[in-house]
């Protein structure tokens, strides 16, 4: 079952389902949770050693990897928790405020 949330912006409190019910398993891709984010991860390729630790720990599977190397972040689903930046052993990831210009590579 999927809820029709197309009119959610005009719902009153009575129309919201009670509790946190996940009606269908494996649906996380359907929800653009990146809209919750206030900061986004930014990776400095010059500092990154491709250890893949950020990919392992990301709770939202939002660190994209190709050919065993980190490429980009899935910003539709990254919630900006900053765990990737916390664990990075080379400080290659900075959390930057949404809407700001991305830093120059240091
Ligand atoms: S944890 Fe840091 S060094 Fe390791 S792959 Fe991620 S960004 Fe690169
Ligand atoms: S900020 Fe959090 S959700 Fe986003 S890529 Fe890093 S660990 Fe994943």
Question: Would you kindly provide a written description of the structure presented here, covering whatever features stand out?
Answer:
The chain has a domain at 28-97: Alpha-Beta Plaits. It is elongated and about 50 Å long. Strands 1-4 form a two-stranded antiparallel ribbon. The chain has a two-stranded antiparallel ribbon with strand order 2-3. It has helices at residues 53-57, 83-87, and strands spanning 39-43, 63-66, 69-73, 93-97. The chain is built from two helices and four strands; from the N terminus they run βαββαβ. With 106 residues, it is mostly beta strands. The structure holds iron/sulfur cluster (2 copies). One iron/sulfur cluster (SF4) binds at residues 41, 58, 60, 62-63, 73, 78-84.
The proportion of residues in beta strands is 15-25%
Give the SSE order as H and E letters.
Answer: EHEEHE
Name the average pLDDT.
89
CATH architecture identity of the domain at 28-97: 2-Layer Sandwich
Low-confidence stretches: none
| Class by alpha and beta content | mainly beta
Strand line-up of the largest beta sheet: 1-4
Distance between the termini: 48 Å
Helix proportion range: under 10%
* CATH C-level class of the domain at 28-97: Alpha Beta
Helix count equals 2
Q: What is the number of beta strands?
A: 4
Shape label: elongated
Described by strand count, sense and barrel closure, the largest sheet is: 2 strands, antiparallel
Q: Could you say which small molecules are bound to this protein? A: iron/sulfur cluster
* CATH fold topology of the domain at 28-97: Alpha-Beta Plaits
Q: Return Rg in Å.
A: 17 Å
